[in-house]
Specification:
Number of helices: 10
Helix content: 10-25%
Order of helices and strands: EHEEHEHEHEEEHEHEHEHEEHEEEH
Radius of gyration: 19 Å
Distance between the termini: 38 Å
Strand order of the largest sheet: 3-2-1-4-5-9-6
Structural class: alpha/beta
Length: about 350
Amino acid sequence: MTYSVAVSGASGYAGGEILRLLAAHPDVEIRTVTAHSNAGQPLVAHQPHLRSLAHLTLQDTTPEVLAGHDIVFLALPHGQSGQYTDALGDTPLVIDAGADHRLTSSAEWDAFYGGSFHEPWTYGVPELLVGGGKGRDALRSATRIAAPGCNASTVSLSLAPGVAAGVIDPGDIVSVLAVGPSGAGKSLKTNLLASEILGSANPYAVGGTHRHIPEIRQALAAARPSTGSGTQDIRISFTPVLVPMSRGILATSTAPIVEGVSDAEIRQAWESAYGDETFVQLLPEGSFPRTADVLGANTALLGLAIDRAANRVTVVTAVDNLVKGTAGAAVQSMNIALGLPETRALSVNGVAP
């Protein structure tokens, strides 16, 4: 069976990456691409690398245009997807790459986003530990999927094994991330101009203000075998730093070691969580990833260090924010929901140099 697909926000970075992956997918047909201000223009005027889709023209993003497809991807700015999702009730599968359907708490939404709160959808991180199982368990029957925030899924995948196994204390997590500007989208912003970021590193959303914080706390709370304890005891200091690379996240996350836990038990927690995963891989002891190793790939590479002097575990994780962080997670989740091979149209191989 071939599934018909519409992609909204197709002129942006996330939409373009979804299209790049779907263009190589044998089970889908990309029929419709939409945009707002760029509607009426050829897709390749805004995504010139997508030569196989040169026949497509950007249409207006309206419920009527998006309706009538088997699958709809929404790659819109945060707060804009919700106005369309209610109107797509007859669409068999809808995947939102924005934040509108990620959070389960309306209070957290109000505190970090504001505007209308929309019901939470199945979270699109298949490898994430959830209540003794994994995220893919719920994705197998999902018809509405919330693709993750790139920073949020990177930190959550980094630390969920330790939280689930009870070998780290989630009450004192510190995460510092080097991130590329493509994560901020394609809209023109002065602080993202090349002249502003080349040769510089700039922190942003410092002091607990980044919107991905409640998403991380929600995911780590769900990683526990018993998910009833909530997020109250999960505290994270989260600092992203903008660096001059177009793609990529390198997240360094640390947390205290629980008293009495051995080094072997710590490493075993991560090995057990990801030992059979294709796209989330724990590197050998003493090895740590580079963002260059995951460029264009749907992989998250993790390096684990045990710092007994500081009594903390350190996890360094590299992802391509546009692939495993966003579009790759969305397509991987789509594959699972449709009963297709999970790896279809997705690669573990990056691009080098």
